[in-house]
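Q: What structure does this chain adopt?
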Amino acid sequence: VAARLNEYFPVLYTGEGGLVAHECILDLRGLTAKTGVTAEDVAKRLIDYGFHAPTLAFPVAGTLMVEPTESEDLAEIDRFIDAMITIRKEIDQVANGDFTVENSPLRHAPHTASAVVSSDWNRQYPREQAAFPVHHLKQDKYFPPVGRIDGAGGDRNLICSCPP
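A:
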């Protein structure tokens, strides 16, 4: 993972020969400074690819810690790497001014089925890019039940919905 993604995202804490332990930490801080795209944006966009987001901001703020396990086969790891490379291309689209970070598929991720099929689509990017950023998702797609939520806001403003 680290060897294939280092060209797209700097990898922190590499040893001799660029090797890492069982996890690799992808550093998005430089890209965030340049484009405004955050590690959270990337984590949420991974949901559109059918992945649970990696560890966010630990042990370093502005990073993603990727920990493949023995339960993930090579095809799944390759699929994750392909998703990250495609996401990097979307970050480059923001850097190149193709769309603003606020109106990018990264900032609006994850995309629900109802959002993608809605007649009210006013985004700067096509629906297909939102829902099917890589071809294989047209055959096997997980649509999240909800779009992006403000996790930190929810943590600070707890609303209990438990019965009395």
